[in-house]
Amino acid sequence: MRHRAKTHSFSRRQGPRIALIRGLVYSLVEHGRIKTTLAKAKEVRRHVEKAVTLGKKGTLHSRRLLESRYPNPGVVLALSTDLKERFATRPGGYTRIVKIGKRSGDAAPVAYLEFVDYQPAATEEPTDKKASKKASKKTVTKKTVAKKKVVKKASPEKAKKKVRKKQSSARKTSRAKKKA
User: Fold this and answer.
1) CA distances from residue 110 to 8, 36, 40, 83, 118 in whole angstroms, order as listed
2) Which residues contact 12 (CB under 8 A, 6 or more apart)?
């Protein structure tokens, strides 16, 4: 039974669970916003709030604690410099959870976990028609380039199939020689 259990297990053992939480914390610190299930967002929020509070202290001890909990130097640096400055006057509540509905595959509730001062990347909209046509052409060319790349990714699989066919035919011929 889960009497007085304070954390979620996510049906994982300790090692994979810690790796999952670390990965989500890294992504949130790096990108400012992540999309995950509601249960994971609620659990990761606890860890991020504590990490930002430790980063705000700015002492050597707090930095070493962050290094031990999150062994990624870039994340520790961001927590102890960038996020420290952003949330210097805020006493807590650095993150917010925005529910966005259910996932189509398994109907799991999905949410955004983001910092409260997160600003989505603003897209520039052209004011005149010529600029808008150029922008649309650029996106079309990017899509076609992306499609071409996808086609190239499938070629190693075809190469593997050809090699397997050659190996199969070689085995057949060697078996036929042994029988003869």
Assistant:
1) 16, 6, 9, 25, 18
2) 20
- Overall pTM surpassing 0.70 (yes/no): no
Q: What is the CATH number of domain 14-115?
A: 3.90.1030.10
Find all residues with CB under 8 Å of 98, minimum gap 6, and list them. Answer: 111, 112, 114
Segments making up each domain of the chain, as ranges:
14-115
CB distance 51 to 70 below 8 Å: yes
Per-residue pLDDT tens for 145-154?
555 555 555 5
CA pair distance 168, 159, nearest whole angstrom: 14
Mean pLDDT of 103-126: 87
Q: Which residues lie closer than 8 Å to 118 by C-beta, 6 or more apart?
A: 32, 33
Backbone angles phi, psi at 110, to 5 degrees: -115, 150
